[in-house]
Amino acid sequence: MKLKLDLHDVYNRGADIDRALRGIIDEAVRIRAPLVEIIPGKGSGQLKKRVLRFLDQKEIKALYHRVEKDSKNFGRLFVHFVWK
After folding, report:
1. In this structure, is residue 56 part of a structural domain?
2. Sign of torsion over alpha carbons 61, 35, 49, 22
3. pTM, whole model, 2 decimals?
């Protein structure tokens, strides 16, 4: 089951962005989802950079396997999980 987070509605509210990102990662861990799709949108690229910085935090990075930037859509990221 793939989870999806569209950040278009909270693009300019920092605390809401972090809360939404943390929530989707926690949900993925809880249900052992293999994939989370995050849509920061295209825009100036600042929101995508913020998402990547969030995912690069040590305690968050320990939860997932890898991050994939969509080669066909600049405004989309995939976070892959591996469960044993």
Report:
1. yes
2. negative
3. 0.92
